[in-house]
Amino acid sequence: MNSFVKPGTEQTVGFGPFVFHRQQRLVTRDGQPLALGGRALDILQLLVAHAGSFVSKQALIAHVWPDSVVEEINLRVHIAALRRTFGDGRDGKRYILNHPHQGYCFAAPLVVEPSAGGPDAEQGERHNLPARLSPVIGRDKVLGRLLIEVPRQPLTTVTGSGGIGKTTVVLRAAELLLEHFEQGAWFIDLSDINDPSLIAPRVCQALGLEDGPLEQRLQSCRVLLVFDGVEHLLGACRELALLLGASAPGVSLLFSSREILDLAQENVLQLPGLTVASPRDPDHQVLACPAVQLLMDRVGARQQGFTPGQRDLALLAQICRRLDGVPLALELAAAQVDVLGVAGVLEQLDGGLSVLSHGRRTAVARHGSLEAALDWSFERLSSDEQMAFQRLAVFEQAFSLKAAMAVISCTGLGMERLPWLLSRLVRQSLVMVEQRAEGTRFYLLNTTRAYALEKLRRNGQWHLLRRRYVLQNAWQLRHSRPEPASQRLEQHASFR
Q1: Strand ranges across the sheet with 54-55
Q2: What percent of the chain stands above pLDDT 90?
Q3: Which of 159, 163, 157, 165 minimizes the C-alpha distance to 136?
Q4: Cβ-based neighbours of 291, under 8 Å, separated by 6 or more
Q5: Side-chain half-sphere CA neighbours of 65 within 13 A
Q6: Which of 69, 122, 405, 478 is the most buried if burial means most Cβ atoms within 10 Å?
């Protein structure tokens, strides 16, 4: 039984107002966690281990990117992030020095001491978080928000479309937050159960507790519970969140879900795709783009010594844009590069999602392919929601509610129901929404649209909806174009 013990010994390193918890890979200032990405922490680990001495750029790159060939600009980006975080150079304080020929040196005085657990702290497990097989790329801002907000909130939900990386983000946040929860952080996967009554036993199993009322067992605990894949059990999860919120104030809940719980105290973080680059951007900007970095990292893990040429960089940027920076899609695309090449993968994307059908054998079923990830959401839609979702695939660009009502309504899908159906699809992360100067606009991610488009073609409605879409565009163009003054005068005269 895991008895919720205090943390064991771990050497921490202090410098200035900062503390580096090396085992937990966490930097704090005045007890508050700082937002630093995995690469920056890797660099800090090596610099602190050789504090007072210069570490060559080649050694740092080899340590942080052992299986990839990257440009020096990548190293400089993360060194700059560390310097910004520490306020390097402010008030004359220097933490990281650089020498054009010798590399970088951690120059601040270090204070090494045991963590708060002390040498006599009781030993025991404080988490069941699965080991990460690869670095977390491009999520520094999101993780920074979670590190600040999760300890202060009873309930936080990270939401987004299938394959967007919700599980990766909540697990990484839990790793970084271990130091702030006396009884640790515990991961509970709900994706493989459908009976709401099994949630409490699953939590007890994860924590090593005997079955019983959770609110009583956790009443005096300071603990983080991370729930993954909860969108099909929203009602039961709402009840659990309300129960623990009222009875166990020291419990923080972190959910990953394609749909929010919709509770008053819920803190919601909408997870976007990784930032993408334009193929026209300079090479160094493409290389610094998180989506391209992830794609190259995954290709490099399969092809030792993978080095993209200048033409490949533009193609990699195009692949990332076509796949909306969705991490699962990028990983699945990377798996095909060694067979098809970069250009071949981009060409195959014109044919739909079939090229993204083979991922890691160890992945859960809903992450085995991009289609499987989207099936997980589609199969939980009502028949009306499925019909609306498929029909919205005819829109090649962002659209208004008025345009959607004009194009996809029919006898079985009346205009009066479309606003509600559209809001449901937005809530389930299948349709994106943005505010523009001309009003609210909706759109589907390229990957999501390709999935819906294939279903629309299979059911034989593509040609009819396409014709209605073209006619609607023509009507909008005709009514948005200002009339010549002479034509307006002629019309005015004809009505006199």
Answers
A1: 54-55, 103-106, 96-99
A2: 41
A3: 165
A4: 138, 273, 274, 275, 276, 277, 320, 323, 325, 330
A5: 24
A6: 405
* Coil, strand or helix at 32: strand
Instruction: Please tell me which residue, 266 or 279, carries the higher pLDDT value.
Output: 266
359 contacts 373 by C-beta, under 8 angstroms: no
pTM: 0.71
- Whole-angstrom CA distances from 420 to 23, 62, 464 are 48, 53, 23
The helix (H) or strand (E) run that includes residue 302 is: helix 290-302
Backbone angles phi, psi at 296, to 5 degrees: -65, -40
How would DSSP label each residue in 424-442?
Answer: HHHHTTSSEEEEETTEEEE
Determine contact, residues 224/177, Cβ cutoff 8 Å: yes
- The β-bridge partners of 128 are none
Whether residue 492 is predicted with pLDDT greater than 70 in this model: the reply is: no
Q: Can you give the pLDDT at residue 369?
A: 77
CA angle 127, 291, 343 (to 5 degrees): 130
Angle made by CA atoms 78, 79, 80, in degrees to the nearest 5: 85
| Residues 6+ away with beta carbon under 8 Å from 178 | 7, 24, 26, 126, 127, 184, 185
